[in-house]
Amino acid sequence: MDAPMTRLLVDGMNLLGTRPDGWWRDRPGSIARLAAELDRLAAAGDEVCVVFDGAPVPLPALERADVRFASRRGRNAADDDIAAKAASDRDPASLVVVTSDAALAERVRAAGAGVQGAGSFRRRLDAER
Length: 129
Prior knowledge:
Oligomer: single chain
Order of helices and strands: EHHEEHEHEH
Number of domains: 1
Number of strands: 5
Number of helices: 5
Mean pLDDT: 93
């Protein structure tokens, strides 16, 4: 029997921030690289949606990952979109939100979703390279 697919909703900027590799010097490039990593994860079988703050940036051709940019600008814009998506999800109990933001984690847990810390998820991505 196949293992169940993991449904992931990723706080993109929070995940970028787990690695102090100078991502802030090339934010568009860092977002594009992370989107490509998440696309590889999605191609391996997980359902992946990632939400980033800020204006959309050019991305590589992606096959499976759903990459979104916050629907508005300002404080907690992506967090609000992530919380709304978790709250409206057809099956929030099967959804895992990747974030280390305590306030966002509280909001998505209230909607019935699970939470995985961004640091442990980053280690998973690194191990799957």
